[in-house]
Specification:
mainly beta, three-stranded antiparallel beta sheet
């Protein structure tokens, strides 16, 4: 797993698929949109590593355009922790213990 940060301040996830011997850029916004059954504009605020099932742990939030005070979409309640299963193209929210 690698982090790609652009000059615009965004973060993307790059994963190495050793079975296919290539680097993949998962469409996290599409995977989350499918899971939540609504269009989502996401911001990846942190990559937290992998869980015991080799899923990628991410901290996600709604994306804000520069200068705006409201998010582009309303898919998250602030920042939320999620796991991404690249092989299945699925994501699940990690239940908070708070």
């Amino acid at each position: 797993m690698a982090t790609y940060e652009s000059d615009a301040g965004g973060i993307d996830v790059l994963l190495y698929d050793r079975e296919k011997n290539k680097v993949v850029l998962p469409d996290i916004a599409q995977i989350i949109s499918t899971k939540l059954k609504q269009k989502c504009s996401i911001r990846i605020s942190n990559q937290m590593g992998f869980d015991a099932l080799s899923r990628v742990k991410l901290r996600l939030a709604d994306n804000f355009e520069e200068g705006e005070d409201k998010p582009d979409t309303h898919c998250f309640k602030g920042e939320e922790e999620w796991v991404l299963d690249q092989k299945r193209s699925t994501a699940e929210q990690i239940k908070s213990s708070r």
